[in-house]
Predict the structure.
Amino acid sequence: MNDWVVFADNGKPVTQRDLPSPWLSVMAVNQADASKTFVIQPFKAFRSGPRYPVSFCPSAVSVDPAHNEIFVLDAGPGRIAGLQLRSDGLHTVWSERQRTTEFLALIGPSARRVVVGTDIPFGERLGKNKLDRVVWRVAATGRELARSRLLPAILNGSMVQPGYAGRMYYLQVDKLIELSVSPKT
């Protein structure tokens, strides 16, 4: 992202709470000067339930270079967040409840970015969930714009794919569902 390499850890579920730092970390390293590094643990204050790993993020971060924004998830505590890279480090701008194991899609023009991702219903097991919803959020604030009806679960580790004219494509094992958002009537 611009002059920075941005990434997160915990691609494998972390289940031990007694590790020095079991929580997902997001890191930014300057490409021109590797001594400039920033680290943040945006979900450290949120605990996962007994049926979930402490931390688990099977996808890479999504970035918006135009706004120096980073979007990240942690399926353990069931949160997604919008971060911002500033001259003094990484900052959490917003964090919302949304348990997902899929990549987050960033869509829309620079002034109206939207983050789209799945949400595993409460009580469903990670990796064994039978259902999902798709959630659209304002990228700058995390405010929820829309939420789909319950859908059969998407393939774990995949992504709701952007299409033309605001359409999104939800890939199932044997089916492709086209999703679009329209104003309430």
